[in-house]
Amino acid sequence: MATGQHAGVRFSSFLAVAIFAAALAAPAARAGLILTLTETGFAPLPVTDNGAGDGDLAVGVIHFNGAYGHFSTNISLAISNSPGAPDSGRLEIQSRDTHMIADVGQRTLTVAASDTSFVLPGAPLELLELHSTISGTITKAGADDAVTFQSFADSLNAQPPANASTTPQNFIFAASNPTVGFSDDIGQNTLFPRGAGPYSLGSVTSVTISPATTVNFSGTTETFPTGVFVPEPTGVAACVIAGPLLLARRRRRQLI
Fold first, then answer.
1. What are the residues facing 130 on neighbouring strands?
2. What is the pLDDT of residue 245?
3. Which residues pair with 13 in a beta bridge?
């Protein structure tokens, strides 16, 4: 599988602002795992864990398979490990066979996932690393078709989370009939200080495709402990202090 830096794929960040706005437009705060589909011109479609549209009865897992707007998508897995685990908090999103069901030109589908009440890893007031990875394939891409993924966290447990985010991972494609792979497995990272209580995690995936295009993607949002504790008012200073920890973790991943 080729990375986003290869196979005619180039990076861009022009979608970041629009995607972040889409995340904030999701339904107001609700406890638990939520998946929200959004397309301009259509009302957002929220799918709650074990609510209407969820085809999986397991708690912490959403499976949506159906049509929305001009798209058909099989969200084969939206899974959260809230309240977290000692090694990481984790939110995953996977989609198979996302394509358009109407020939209306290039359109954008936004898929936002979020969950609340993470209390692990780490402890209250610990600086956490927010890590974001994405991979997938695109078939019969049209010119300027694109996939963007971004991860979010919120030390106040808000939903959707908004007060910490990774750099958007953007892939823009040239017109191509063969299947092209894209990935950023090393990922994007940022640091954020936990509050005194639980925190929330989220991700936003934006898929801009042409009528003949099919996309599969898998995105992961994770948090890792750093062992650095900070008073709540001095989170910014703590990020500066803990910067070398983040760089060291990046170097380790690059060597794996």
1. 190, 223
2. 53
3. none
pLDDT value, residue 185: 82
For residue 173, CA distances in Å to 18, 139, 202 come to 19, 10, 25
**Count of residues in the chain:** 256
Q: How does residue 183 score in pLDDT terms, banded at 50, 70 and 90?
A: very high
Q: Residue 95: is it exposed, middle or buried by C-beta count within 10 angstroms (0-12/13-18/19+)?
A: buried
Whether the CB-CB separation of 152 and 21 falls below 8 Å is answered with no
Decide if 1 is inside a domain: no
Structural domain span for residue 79: 9-255
pTM: 0.81
Is residue 168 a contact partner of residue 78, using CB atoms and an 8 Å limit? Answer: no
Q: DSSP letters along 134-172, please? A: EEEEEEEEPTT-EEEEEEEEETT--SS--SEEPPPEEEE
Whole-number Å distance between alpha carbons of 69 and 72? 8
Residue 69 pLDDT more than 50? yes
pLDDT at 19 over 80: no
Asked whether residue 3 is assigned to any structural domain, the reply reads no
Per the structure block, which two tokens stand in for 215? 């996309």
Q: Is residue 4 part of a domain?
A: no
Q: How many domains does the chain have?
A: 1
Q: Which residues of 216-255 are buried (b: 16+ CB within 10 A; e: fewer)?
A: bbbbbbbbbbbebebeeeebeebbeebeebbeeebeeeee
Rounded Cα gap, residues 36 and 5, in angstroms: 29
